[in-house]
Design goal:
The structure is a homodimer. By secondary structure, the first copy, chain A, is α+β, with helices and mostly antiparallel strands. In chain A, 20% of the residues lie in helices and 38% in strands. Chain A is built from three helices and twelve strands. A four-stranded mixed β-sheet of chain A has the order 7-4-10-9, with helices on both faces. A three-stranded antiparallel β-sheet of chain A has the order 1-2-3, with no helix packed on it. A three-stranded antiparallel β-sheet of chain A has the order 6-5-12. The termini of chain A are far apart. Chains A and B meet through strand 1, strand 2, strand 3, strand 5 and strand 6 of A and strand 1, strand 2, strand 3, strand 5 and strand 6 of B.
């Protein structure tokens, strides 16, 4: 019988081959060897650049949202702005760039909220989350080809309602909102919620 | 200039071809036509069965966790149990099956916490989240080939600490914990936390 109390082994990566290259990710076949069993196996890994998602709060406590048609689900999706990081790009800088390009908003301050691995089982990259405060519409839009985005804002409390009601259903967007929630509870407890000091 | 206040169009799916088939997903090339622009474009979609992740709570308010080596990130990851749903399988039944096979735990009740789309931009499937209560170790393990899992339990409050500290970093596992949080707050407010009525 397998033991469930023994620590799992660190498999040794022997090498990898490209199985498919697309505009947004590459699928790798990665060969691993188990150190104890001396068996070799091939696993499939989706390799993509890191991603960034942005919680952008306006001075009147609304969040910037984007509504897009999403080809993965063949349906519309309500999300926060985000995109693909450039090689070597800082997550906060990338977040501010994506926010500006996608929505035309810029902020007065930006901090990293955290990061997750979207799927450690089959995907190598991370998704970073950036909080931008004092977000106001100040730039022209710079959409990529095929981007067609409805930009809107909703009060923060309404965004959490939309998440709880399943109207926001993108797992990574929900990760961002979870990381923002404790900061929002602090902000909402201000003596005058309309005017941050 | 692009308008950001106009609703985005619903692209029309014209057809798709398989670009790569692996054990865990298929990559499709999907051809779409924009209704207004009359342009056609190919998009890439990762197609996989739905997934299920399980928040399994023991009678003494601990959660069942699994620690595995994950090939996607070439690193260990601390997660809740989960796996791939069978065609036509009910999410709750799938969650109970995965929990039993992966950890040997069974519960006294199980409910659906919710579901997300892991990545609507490039991925078609959903991940469902199931809450199992009264979870106790009662079965032999039935691991798939290559599965090597450390099964452990931690107090619920400790699991949330691990998530906040970035020790649990799987985006979908964090989605599950976010959905479980309000239920836990209710449970934690019980007069006698050790004995649910």
């Amino acid at each position: 019988m397998n033991s469930s109390t023994r620590e799992p082994a660190r498999w040794e990566k022997l090498g990898c081959v490209s199985r498919l290259k697309t505009r947004v990710f590459e699928v790798l076949g990665v060969r691993y060897r188990h150190p104890g069993r001396e068996t070799e196996r091939d696993f499939v890994v989706v390799h993509a650049p890191d991603w960034v998602n942005v919680v952008a709060r306006t001075p009147d406590d609304r969040l910037v949202l984007v509504r897009q048609f999403r080809y993965g689900i063949d349906e519309f999706s309500l999300e926060i702005p985000g995109g693909v990081m450039e090689p070597g790009e800082d997550p906060v800088a990338a977040g501010l760039r994506e926010l500006r390009e996608e929505t035309g908003y810029a902020g007065t301050s930006a901090v990293l909220l955290g990061a997750v691995h979207p799927n450690p089982a089959i995907q190598s990259n991370r998704c970073h989350f950036v909080l931008v405060d004092g977000a106001v519409r100040s730039h022209e839009l710079e959409w990529d080809a095929d981007e067609e985005i409805r930009v809107l804002t909703e009060p923060v409390a309404r965004v959490f309602e939309l998440a709880h009601a399943g109207k926001i259903f993108h797992g990574l967007v929900l990760n961002a909102l979870m990381l923002f929630a404790p900061k929002w509870r602090e902000l909402a407890a201000r003596p005058d919620p309309g005017r941050p000091v």
